[in-house]
Amino acid sequence: MKSSAPALFLAAITLLAVIALPSISTAVGLPTLTFGVEDAESTTQVSSALQVLFLLTILSIAPAILLMMTSFSRIVIVLGFVRMAMGTNNMPPTQVVIGLSLFLTFFIMSPTLNAINNEALQPYLSEEISQQEALENALEPMRDFMFSHVMEAELALLSDLTLEAEPLDKEDIPTMTLIPAFMLSELKRAFQMGFMIYIPFLVIDMIVASVLMSMGMMMLPPVIISMPFKLLLFVLIDGWGLVAGSLLKSFG
Questions:
Q1: Alpha-carbon distance 88 to 93, whole Å?
Q2: Which of 78, 178, 226, 229 has the fewest CB atoms within 10 Å of its CB?
Q3: Rounded to an integer, what distance in angstroms lies between the CA atom of residue 250 and that of residue 105?
Q4: Domain definitions of the chain by residue range
Q5: Confidence band (pLDDT; 50, 70, 90) for 54?
Q6: With left for phi above 0 and alpha for psi between -120 and 50, is residue 35 left, alpha or beta?
Q7: What distance in Å separates the CA atoms of residue 204 and residue 26, rounded to the nearest whole number?
Q8: CA angle, 56 as apex, 52 and 60 as ends, to 5°?
Q9: What pLDDT sits at residue 44?
Q10: Residues 176-218: tens digit of each pLDDT
C-alpha cells in the first residue's frame, strides 16, 4: 500500500486540476494565441512580418552559431574519439557526452562570458550603452578568444580567399573570416588529439589479435577480448580525468 501512495497522490492532483481548470480559466481569463495569414494593408506590415520571421530564424540557429565560436567543437569531437577508441559504441550515451562537453565549455569560456557580462550585458540593461555598442562590446571578447586559438595556416587561407589586401593587424580581419578559420583550427586540433588517443587502444587490439591468431582462434572477434582490457586500462590510468585535463590545458 505504501508503494502506491505516490501514484494515488499524483492521480488525485491530476483529477483536481482537470476539474478546476474550467472554473479557473473562466475566472482569470486565460489568453489565446491566433496564427493566420491576411492581406497586408501597407508595406510596413510586410516589413514587420519579414523582420519577425528573420528574427525567429536567427534564434533557432543562434545556439549552433554560438557553439561553433566556443571550445565546444573540440571537446565533443575528442570525447567522441574516446568512445570510439574504446569500442563502446553507445557508452557513455550521446546525451552524457554532449552534457559533459557543454559544462566543460562553460568552464573554459567563463572568463570570456564574464567579460561579455561586464562590458556589454550589464551596461545595456542599465541603459548606459546602445544596442549596437552592446553587440560590439560582446563581440570583442569572443574575437579575442578565437584569435588566441586560431592557427595561422587556416587564418591565412581564409584571409587570402576573402580579403583583397593583406591584413596588417587583427582589426583588419572581419569576424566572418575569423569564425570559419577558428572552426577549421578546432577540427584540426581535435583530430590530432583523437589520433593520439587512438594509439594505445590500437596497440591493445593488435596484441589481442596476434595472441588469438597464434592460438588458432581466428573465428573469435578480437574486439570481444580486447574491450575488457581497454576498459581496465582506461580505468587504471584515470582516463576521463586525463582527457578532461588535456582538453582544459589545450585551451591554456
A1: 10
A2: 229
A3: 12
A4: 74-250
A5: low
A6: beta
A7: 70
A8: 170
A9: 54
A10: 888 888 889 989 999 998 888 888 888 888 888 888 777 777 7
Q: Model confidence over 120-131: pLDDT tens digits? A: 878 877 777 787
One-letter amino acid for residue 181 of the chain: A
CA distances from 103 to 61, 96, 106, 226, 251 (A): 20, 11, 5, 31, 15
Query: How far apart are the C-alpha atoms of 234 and 47, rounded to whole Å?
Result: 58
DSSP-based three-state secondary structure for 216: coil
Residue 91 near residue 83 (C-beta atoms within 8 A): yes
CA distance 202 to 177: 38
**Which range is least confidently modeled, 16-25, 41-50, 178-187?**
16-25
Say yes or no to pLDDT of 102 above 50. Answer: yes
> How far lies 117's CA from each of 23, 112, 120, 161, in Å?
44, 9, 6, 34
**Lookup: cell for 219:** 573465428
Percent of the chain with pLDDT over 70: 75
Q: Is the dihedral of CA 75, 80, 82, 88 positive or negative?
A: positive
Rounded Cα gap, residues 147 and 123, in angstroms: 25
What are the distances in angstroms from CA 163 to CA 13, 69, 175?
A: 64, 21, 12
Kind and range of the H or E run holding 152? helix 152-162
d(CA 69, CA 139): 11
Distance CA(132)–CA(172), nearest Å, equals 20
Query: What single letter denotes the amino acid at residue 209?
Result: A
